[in-house]
Model the fold of this input.
Amino acid sequence: MMRHLHHFVREVRDVSVETFDIAYDTLAGFGRELLELGESPDRTRQGLVAACSVMLATYLALLLEIQSPWWAAISAFMSLTATGGGSLRRGLLRMAGTAAGALLGFIMARWLPYDHFAMYLFIAGVTMLGVVAMQVSPHGLAWMFLSITSILVLLEAINNPLQAASIAYYRMFEVGIGVLSAIIVANILQDWHREPPPTAPGWRHLLGAQWPVVLHGARSAIAVVAVMSIWMALEISQVVEMAITVAVVMAAPVVADGGLGTRHAVAIRSLHRLLGCLLGGAVALACLALNVESFVWWLGMIGVAVWIGMHIQIGPHGVGYVGTQAAFAFIVTLIQGEAPPDSILPGVDRFAGIVGGLAILMVVSMVLWPSDEEIAEQKAAGRE
Done:
């Protein structure tokens, strides 16, 4: 008994020290990125492209009075690459995955909201599919957004399945606005040249050389279902924001050498998400507290934040995902409806929802993923 207690205390101590070290390194890298703002013309232009794309998507979404203008803005941000041709390919993959996911979510929403066990099984399966495909398929982005969109449509329709068709349609419409905005701006402000298609190992060796990817997908599915179960048990209303966050952040790659994803690698990515969300959300809440009523100034704040987020995302200091998540949290928190928000409370609710989901996800992930020592023991046992 004392031996197990000693082992547990040592594990808690090691995890705490590791978490502190990762957080310190992350914040230091974030600070270095901010000090380099405006120094690189290429990064400055890429940030400008992102800012213009998101502002155009936001304006069009509000003009067309769609349900979730923030999703159009995020779609524009996530569809960009360094070239016009690359942004076109990425946008089309995102659109194809969204359309397929919207259809799948609509079909599943006809009966899964009435059977939560079957709904959990479906979400686990589609999450695993998306995560595995992201690693092995050259069209992994489309598979990932099929997973994200189907989960999103299903959960948004959980309280009223009769609205599933409308929800699926608006998700496609919103993504279409964001993708179109990104393609237009990218091809006006960036050079056009085709990027080589990404190399991928394919689906043929999932039970052999690619087995670590399958394990990674299975752990991801368990983590997502665990987070959602806790969320629903607590009866927290921000289930949609939680679902989007969980689905997006689970697209984490396995380690580069093809081995199992380690607890340390997952801890780094989880802390990057959480810190990015805290930084972006805190800045957004500060902007909301200013009670800006001018549409131009409000749109300008969005553009500046996105420019900084893209600058960090493509930076050299290893904290790119902090910039991605910060921009994501800022957009979701600041864009609430058809005009500049007149209250900070909805933004606080959204921010708290995303942070809560990420915090639960980080704890669950740390429990599920093996440590470096455990993987070394598994490899040593395999050689015997």
